[in-house]
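ok trying again, last paste got cut off:
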Amino acid sequence: MVLFNLLTVLILFVLLFYLQRRGVSFGKRVLLALILGLVVGCVYHLIYGIHSPIVKDTLSWVNIVGSGYIRMLKLIVIPLVLVSITSSILQIKDMKTFRTKGLTIIAVLLFTTVIAAGIGAASALGYNLSAVGMSAGNAEIAAGQKFETKLDSFSAKPIQQQLIEIIPTNVFYAFTGQNSADTLSVVFIAVLIGLSILKIRQYKPQTAEFLQTVILAVQDIVMEVVEFILKITPYSILALIIKFIATSDLNSILKLVSFVAASYTAIIAMFIVHLLLLTLVKYNPISYIKEAFPVLSFAFMSRTSAGTLPLTVNALENKMGVSQGTANLAASFGISIGQNGCAGVYPAMLAVMIAPTVGIDPFTAAFLLKLVFVTALGSLGIAGVGGGATFAALVVLSTMGLPVGLVGLLIAIEPLIDMGRTALNVSDAMTTAIITEKITAK
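nice, full thing came through this time. structure:
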């Protein structure tokens, strides 16, 4: 049966390749891959069950495509950020404009996070979510203890120290991407290199011209690799969604269906806010949905904002008309600062749900105002530590005086809600890039 299953998946891969050769658009192939993956995953789930050895053996091979693709994307993130931001600086003539764009990007990211926190809290209140009376199994208890341990480690490192760590002490170690702050560290390095070459241009123009030529040549290589990776996106989405559907524990999800529903209500509402903001700056929201769909689909299935970075930058530059500098800055900052899903909606919902367990009324204006304020600051705090939703939850819950261990109760549905959170994070980065481009172009 394993061979038959693999042959079925292989035939679907051949179909996607055939459609690519026939000139079918990238977006349509991504959508088809999504649908086919849902169908195949459901078939595996219903016929074999999530614990079947047949499914396990089948997915061990199918996962080569999905996980391999994500690893390739993560591989290219650091080089892409480095050469793209450096080359963007070398092409600017007005440093004031560059500074304005950077500050605007950060401001928009934080502003949308404030809105996301408010929507998350409102959704949790609307669904009357509460952790009171929720039972915990062994997995949930273990997850809660893990959160408590992370809190101890996290509390030992203040936000000031986290921000200082953005400045790397070893440039080569920063390029490895092993530290939590490495993406922002590479942004810092790229800005230093770009500004240094601009300075050299004033007294050694020939040296500066040579350095710029080298940077642009490396960028051409990186973008060629990105182009190759993008071509296999539909195949990876097919593989990823087959694995997710075939191995999801639907019974555990149904037990927490209210939190799932509240999460996606908030995520969809915030996505609508993105569309309204785009409308305000006179960018067609329908066009945005059409161009962003392949990127958001991959973010949804892969659950990695950093891994989606090459697709995000490509869509902004080639589909949405955003300049290279703005696209790279917004996309790079967007995976570390003010994430609407992980650092906005999610921590606010958790705080509202957990507050009743310690006798706090989440319906009071004082609690909600403090929650939104703390969530906004916390979204900036995760810039130096990474870890997405986990660290954002630690910041908000600990600052609000709420127990973090209760978050372990949601371990069964964490992958499902993380998919929507990641897609919203990426949408926020793209929306921010477009808004910044429109504002600074005036």
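cool. Residues 53-90 form the longest helix (38 residues). The radius of gyration is 22 Å.
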